[in-house]
């Protein structure tokens, strides 16, 4: 469509006002220095800035999150999923949660060294480390930066348990690490698949691998002995919810051990981005979509409360849960609980063989 920026998720790039950030030019100097083509804006150029954090393990205290520590190898995500709840974090960098989030990325190349030091501190107790809980650890820049792989190498060397959540089939490139870890009950992978409709998927998640590629990755992981789950997250009312049963069926056929789902969440700046995206791509049903979302979220665009923010509430949420559980029972999913081992952990050793700390 003329005037529409191609292959990106957000349709807006407004600055966040939550932190009284100064106004910035929406296009700035990070656009390709090229003229319009057929009336469309020039494509965005993805840039990567090196970030030098002091620590790499994030401690998680939210009561409705099933892990207590995580690592984010990158900030921002080129996949461009319009609904991404991590988008508002870019406002802390004086950047837009819109197109900046998709095109102005941050990499942490010292992550492995920081992790090795933190795991070597006296008194460290191993618990499953979660990767991919904020932005995708296997977004396209991982092919060049390999930060996620370097983190996995440290965890492998220490026999430290890890869980990975991703929308990318690139995860199979690390099967040489993940399969031996799985044999020791040290790794689990979750592939996120929102829709099986390629056109819908390309609109909702414009730079993520196709649904079929992700299902192929599920099969490859399962065949290699890696416990793999499928995350149907988010479910978008009146756009993807009708696919729930078929997604569960395909996940089971591909070898997944189980599935889970989360109704779409729209925190902070995500809500206006999502509304603008609806107006652009689904104008005929935008009102219906938002009406159902608000019925799920207590009359609001978003419900931030622990306990309900991941589940939704009300009749529509109950119906969705009923459909989900019936489909999982039909296809034999979620019949077992995977327990990763923490007792094998051995702190990393220094160059001379001494323990850190």
Question: Can you tell me about this structure?
Answer:
- The chain has 357 residues and is α/β, with parallel strands linked by helices.
- It has one domain (47-330): Aldolase class I (TIM Barrel, Alpha-Beta Barrel), CATH 3.20.20.70.
- Helices cover 30% and strands 12% of the residues.
- The strands form 2 sheets. A 7-stranded mixed β-sheet has the order 2-3-6-7-8-9-10, with helices on one face. It has a 3-stranded mixed β-sheet with strand order 1-5-4.
- Strand 9, helix 8 (244-254) and strand 10 (258-263) form a beta-alpha-beta unit.
Topology:
Blueprint lengths: L46 E4 L7 E2 L9 E3 L2 E2 L23 H5 E4 L3 H9 L9 E3 L10 H4 L1 H11 L4 E5 L8 H9 L3 E6 L5 H7 L6 H13 L4 E8 L8 H11 L3 E6 L6 H12 L4 H11 L18 H16 L27
Parallel strand pairs: 1-5, 3-6, 6-7, 7-8, 8-9, 9-10
Antiparallel strand pairs: 2-3, 4-5
Helix pairs in contact: 2-4, 7-8, 8-11
Name the CATH homologous superfamily: Aldolase class I
Strands, total number = 10
Outline type: globular
Number of individual domains: 1
Query: Which CATH architecture would you pick?
Result: Alpha-Beta Barrel
| Strand line-up in the sheet with most strands | 2-3-6-7-8-9-10
The chain-level structural class is alpha/beta
Q: Mind telling me the C-alpha Rg?
A: 21 Å
CATH topology, which one? TIM Barrel
Q: Give average pLDDT, whole number.
A: 88
Major sheet attributes: 7 strands, mixed
- The percent range for strand residues is 5-15%
Order of helices and strands: EEEEHEHEHHEHEHHEHEHHH
Number of helices: 11
Look at the structure and give the CATH class: Alpha Beta
């Amino acid at each position: 469509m003329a005037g529409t920026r191609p292959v990106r998720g957000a349709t807006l790039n407004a600055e966040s006002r939550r932190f009284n950030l100064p106004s910035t030019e929406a296009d700035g100097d990070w656009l390709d220095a090229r003229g319009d083509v057929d009336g469309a804006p020039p494509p965005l150029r993805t840039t990567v800035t090196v970030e030098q954090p002091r620590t790499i393990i994030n401690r998680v205290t939210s009561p409705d999150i099933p892990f207590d520590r995580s690592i984010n190898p990158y900030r921002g995500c080129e996949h461009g999923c319009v609904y991404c709840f991590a988008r508002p974090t870019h406002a802390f960098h004086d950047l837009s949660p819109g197109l900046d989030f998709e095109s102005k990325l941050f990499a942490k190349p010292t992550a492995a060294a920081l992790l090795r030091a933190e795991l070597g501190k006296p008194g460290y107790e191993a618990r499953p480390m979660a990767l991919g809980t904020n932005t995708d650890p296997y977004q396209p820049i991982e092919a060049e930066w390999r930060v996620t792989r370097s983190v996995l190498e440290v965890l492998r060397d220490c026999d430290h348990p890890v869980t990975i959540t991703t929308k990318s089939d690139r995860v199979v490139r690390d099967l040489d690490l993940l399969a031996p870890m799985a044999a020791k009950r040290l790794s689990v992978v979750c592939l996120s698949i929102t829709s099986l409709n390629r056109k819908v998927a390309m609109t909702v998640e414009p730079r993520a691998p196709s649904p079929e590629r992700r299902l192929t990755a599920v099969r490859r992981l399962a065949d290699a002995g890696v416990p793999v789950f499928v995350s149907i997250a988010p479910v978008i009312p009146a756009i993807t919810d009708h696919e729930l049963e078929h997604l569960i069926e395909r996940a089971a056929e591909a070898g997944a051990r189980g599935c889970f789902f989360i109704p779409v969440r729209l925190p902070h700046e995500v809500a206006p981005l999502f509304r603008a995206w609806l107006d652009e791509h689904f104008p005929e049903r935008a009102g219906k979509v938002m009406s159902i979302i608000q019925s799920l979220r207590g009359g609001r665009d978003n419900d931030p409360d622990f306990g309900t923010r991941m589940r939704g509430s009300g009749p529509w949420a109950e119906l969705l849960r009923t459909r989900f559980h019936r489909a999982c029972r039909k296809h034999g999913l979620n019949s077992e609980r995977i327990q990763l081992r923490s007792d094998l952990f051995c702190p990393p050793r220094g160059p001379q063989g001494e323990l850190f700390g």
